[in-house]
Design brief:
Blueprint: H1 2-27, H2 33-46, H3 55-73, H4 79-110, H5 115-140, H6 144-171, H7 176-186, H8 190-200, H9 202-216, H10 219-239, H11 248-251, H12 254-267, H13 273-297, H14 300-305, H15 309-331
Helix pairs in contact: 1-2, 1-3, 1-13, 2-13, 3-5, 3-12, 3-13, 4-5, 4-9, 4-15, 5-6, 5-10, 5-15, 6-8, 6-13, 6-15, 7-8, 7-9, 7-15, 8-9, 10-12
């Protein structure tokens, strides 16, 4: 009963705002419910403020429900289809992923942007926007302000990509498959990939979606890598006399294991199409709900202190990935 009294008010507050955000997202699909959720949460927190009784539940939603959402989203992923598409697009995917992180950390260091913010922008651009940021933020123990800023940055360049990529693809004479591979590897959020792909053609849209889902599986190894890095940092800190309580078991992203398990269950046919559709919708709503809670915890004042540098970093990484994706296709004869 104590847990309920402590957390339910904030969970319900996040839920009702997320319902409205999801409705807005269904009306304006180019933006999506997740972005509306984080924007509404930020506006509420930075104008009228959130009630004190909601704080515990909002923190729970932003962390635990977020991790649960990642697990649920695994039910919509078929590892068989991922393998088939992954083999076809592996060279483009690995090179763009590598260049995304190289450019993020090189320019992040040059511009003196904090490690967490650089990592969130890098992983959001490299893999799958808000979902990837949501996956590694608990591992990095990132502040809500860092999560909000990185998601806002990723969203900004998603909008540019949806508007710019289709006409540019036609101008460059891309085939449906070439454009689908470009959109699937260089546009961040899944909804934006779908929007850009189908704006070019139906065939490009379907291929871009599969490439994007394949790219999403990179959350698993990247999360484990970040867990190892953070564990090493904490271990070094503890050896140097810090009071940090180092534990790899505690920091390991077990929810990613859950994501892999639900993906495997879907692959072997445990879920029928109706269940997959329902669970996928539920997972997406939980993401909206969790990001609404992130917005309700974000402080505009702290974000402004970060300045425009993270936005410029997002531009550099996004441009790098977009150009490299085309370049690798040219070099491998896919364009």
């Amino acid at each position: 009963m104590y847990w309920l009294r402590r957390n339910i008010p904030g969970i319900l507050m996040s839920f009702f705002i997320a319902v409205f955000a999801s409705w807005l997202g269904s009306k304006y699909t180019i933006i999506g419910g997740s972005v509306f959720g984080i924007i509404l949460g930020m506006l509420i927190n930075n104008t009228i403020g959130k009630p004190a009784w909601s704080e515990n539940g909002i923190k729970f939603t932003a962390k635990k429900i977020l991790q649960g959402a990642i697990i649920v989203l695994g039910t919509g992923l078929s590892l068989t289809q991922v393998w088939k598409t992954g083999v076809e697009s592996l060279s483009v995917m690995l090179v763009t992923l590598s260049f995304a992180f190289l450019s993020a950390y090189a320019f992040g260091k040059l511009m003196k942007i904090p490690f967490n913010l650089t990592s969130l922008i890098g992983v959001g651009t490299a893999i799958c926007g808000g979902s990837a940021i949501a996956a590694i933020s608990p591992i990095l123990e990132a502040e809500e302000t860092e999560v909000a800023y990185s998601i806002s940055t990723i969203f900004f360049f998603n909008i540019i990509a949806v508007l710019l990529f289709p006409p540019l693809g036609h101008l460059l004479g891309f085939s449906d498959r070439a454009f689908g591979l470009w959109a699937g590897t260089a546009v961040n959020d899944t909804s934006s990939v779908v929007a850009a792909g189908y704006a070019f053609s139906d065939l490009a849209g379907s291929y871009a979606t599969i490439v994007k889902l394949t790219r999403t599986t990179m959350i698993i190894p990247i999360s484990i890598i970040f867990a190892v890095v953070m564990a090493a940092k904490k271990k070094n800190a503890s050896q140097n006399g810090s009071t940090i309580n180092y534990s790899f078991i505690r920091i390991f992203p077990w929810f990613i294991v859950g994501f892999l398990i639900t993906s495997l269950l879907n692959t072997v046919g445990i879920f029928n199409n109706e269940m997959i559709a329902y669970l996928s919708s539920a997972g997406k709503f939980l993401i909206v709900m969790a990001l609404t809670a992130v917005g309700l915890s974000a402080d505009f004042g702290k974000m402004l202190k970060s300045g425009l540098k993270p936005l410029f970093l997002g531009l550099i990484v996004w441009f790098t990935v977009s150009v490299v994706s085309i370049g690798v296709q040219y070099l491998t004869g896919q364009i």
